[in-house]
Design a protein that fits this description.
Elements: H1 15-20, E1 27-30, E2 42-45, H2 51-66, E3 71-74, E4 85-88, E5 91-97, E6 104-109, E7 113-119, H3 126-136, H4 145-152
Parallel strand pairs: 2-7, 3-5
Antiparallel strand pairs: 1-2, 3-6, 4-5, 6-7
């Protein structure tokens, strides 16, 4: 069997790690198949909506897995203070702002190789985040990011009492 024919070992984090994560801890899950047939290529759970704090670490870890990145596309309305570029490990990564929705970040490697990541809201509970991220990286996933979040995140609590 040639080395390239060997099965790719799973690289996803074990479920126990996701259960132990406190709210606000950044996590990244990437699909581990060579096929890119699904809608999403991974999921990211940032600690906050402060892009200057969150994006460099994401770019750094994605570069380790995907190689040098050239662009990140995101919805500027979902983040605090979006610059036009960031420098990570001496490399410039340009930021494109367009209305992709606050639930998606688009990563570009080279000129045309794009990766779509589900963005789990920072205040999501660990169980809901784990479920959304697991669903996003399934090889057979054909569900858009917004639909995954609606299906996996609990309804927001209301402080109003029901009338008697």
């Amino acid at each position: 069997m040639a080395e390239s024919d060997a099965p790719t070992p799973p690289k996803l984090l074990p479920e126990e790690i996701h259960r132990a994560v406190r709210p606000g801890t950044a996590l990244l899950r990437l699909r581990t198949t060579h096929s890119r047939e699904g809608v999403l290529d991974g999921a990211w759970w940032p600690r906050s909506r402060t892009l200057a704090d969150e994006l460099p670490a994401l770019i750094q870890v994605l570069t380790e897995h995907l190689g040098p990145l050239t662009r990140v596309g995101l919805d500027s309305a979902a983040w605090e203070e979006v610059p036009t570029r960031v420098v990570v490990d001496g490399r410039v990564v340009h930021l494109d702002s367009f209305p992709v929705g606050d639930d998606t970040v688009l990563i570009t490697r080279g000129d045309t190789d794009h990766f779509a990541l589900l963005v789990v809201p920072p205040d999501t509970t660990p169980d809901a985040a784990r479920d959304a991220m697991a669903r996003a990286v399934r090889a057979d996933n054909v569900t858009q990011a917004a639909e995954i979040l609606v299906a996996t995140l609990p309804e927001p609590a209301t402080d109003r009492e029901e009338p008697a």
